[in-house]
Amino acid sequence: MLGCRPWNLSLVTVIIITFSNMLFTMLLLQSEDCGPSYVAPADDAGEPSVLTEKPPAVRTPAPAQSCDPRDYQQPSESSILRMDVRVGRWDARRLYKMFDSVVIGSEFPALSSSYSVSIATQSSVEKLYSLVQVAHQWTGPISVAVFTPGDESFFVFQRYLAYLRKCYAPIRERVTFSVAIPKDRPVFDQPQVIELTGDEDCLKPEATLNTFLVGVSKELATWKNRNVYPQNHLRNLARKNCQTEYVFLTDVDIIPSPNQANLLDEFLKSSQCEKCAYVIPTYEIDTRVRFPQNKTELVRIANKGLARPFHQKVFIHNQYATNFTRWSLDVLPGYGGNVDVVRSGKVYVSHEVNNFEFFYEPFYVARDTAPEHDERFMGYGYTRNTQVYEMFVAGHEFLVLTPIFTGHWGLQTKKGRPAWREKQNSMNRKLFDGFKKEVFARYNRDPLKMMKNQN
């Protein structure tokens, strides 16, 4: 019998102890202390910080696991956003949470040191494809603020950002991204490593984005239709993440003319004006033509009806004070002005805006000391023109530059504008009465006689 022999009892004891040790080892490896954790981007000291909360819904492989924080593999800069969705910067009314510079272009710091001007632009996720052409045209630094309401939008943004940085060196090198998230539709999923399938077409940025948006719920679209787009929050966010003395405020679908960053930088470095807003004329361009390579080509297609001043048919007062007719003169036959200078591409002041009006909304370059956009105005209407109006009251001069310009694809008509824009415009109109009184009290000036006009 086995139990009658002492050496057999010793063998059984050894076997039991061995299996017990193996079982305890397996349980230890499966303990919660060693479970998957979100790996935050490196802090200033270069050490990653570990957040011990459950990972987001599985859309991509989880990060590497380890019980020792020193063993974590830091995600590459292009694969994860430098942010924790629980910790952001609230706006004045706690309606939106801001996250500054969540992805920084590899050359952005160096470009910000060598250039005097940056582009500051803003976009929803659905319009980000426009950034591709902007980044290829503009060789200086670019700061982009993106609106991402909720986890669905946030995930599509991360995925498309990975695509943009993989496919386009100008975006990977020159562009810094910031994020705004609404309080009413927060983001819960932490940033994650995005792995693309490899089937994405780098020649089709718009089609690729549309593919990424296919799975988005109708409920998100309904929410967007019922809620305002915080344009001014995003403009301020993009601007304050620029590092240059001057900022060129645009929308994401406003495309600069070729070599504009270098030409503008040369001009601005010789400027001594503290309160000058340098207006860059903006044209709508028919999609059947190529983007104009210079001012002469732009004026030629405009004379053929294939380009026209921005918003000319939709709302003429938007850009009217720029005086596009005067701006075009130096390339028209018979005009004996600065034709040779225009051909050289050198930037100079064409003329001063001397018929400023309240609804004027130029795209301009100014020092970063200019007034911010008032974040009470949200959605459409009174968002840009109120900031330009305050600049005018504060004593800024508006000077139109040539031969540089910007373009916007498509000839716009009123039929293409949805009815909800007018509703938002009416809401903002009601806010303006208080705004103009504040501006008057701040500067003690009323050059447009707005205080006398209560309508």
TrEMBL record:
Membrane-traversing stretches: 7-29
Topological relation to the membrane, as annotated: Single-pass type II membrane protein
UniProt key word Transmembrane: yes
InterPro entries on file: B4GAT1
Superkingdom classification of source: Eukaryota
Known cofactor(s): Mn(2+)
A single Gene Ontology CC term: Golgi membrane
Localisation per UniProt entry: Golgi apparatus membrane
Transferase is among the record's keywords: yes
Pathway given in the UniProt record: Protein modification; protein glycosylation
GO biological process, one term: protein O-linked glycosylation via mannose
Catalytic activity as recorded in UniProt: 3-O-[beta-D-Xyl-(1->4)-Rib-ol-P-Rib-ol-P-3-beta-D-GalNAc-(1->3)-beta-D-GlcNAc-(1->4)-(O-6-P-alpha-D-Man)]-Thr-[protein] + UDP-alpha-D-glucuronate = 3-O-[beta-D-GlcA-(1->3)-beta-D-Xyl-(1->4)-Rib-ol-P-Rib-ol-P-3-beta-D-GalNAc-(1->3)-beta-D-GlcNAc-(1->4)-(O-6-P-alpha-D-Man)]-Thr-[protein] + UDP + H(+)
Keywords noted in UniProt: Glycoprotein, Glycosyltransferase, Golgi apparatus, Manganese, Membrane, Metal-binding, Signal-anchor, Transferase, Transmembrane, Transmembrane helix
Any GO MF annotation of the entry: glucuronosyltransferase activity
Residue ranges of the region described as Disordered: 45-76
PANTHER family from the UniProt entry: BETA-1,4-GLUCURONYLTRANSFERASE 1
Protein family: Belongs to the glycosyltransferase 49 family.
Protein name as it appears in the record: Beta-1,4-glucuronyltransferase 1
Organism whose genome encodes this protein: Neodiprion lecontei
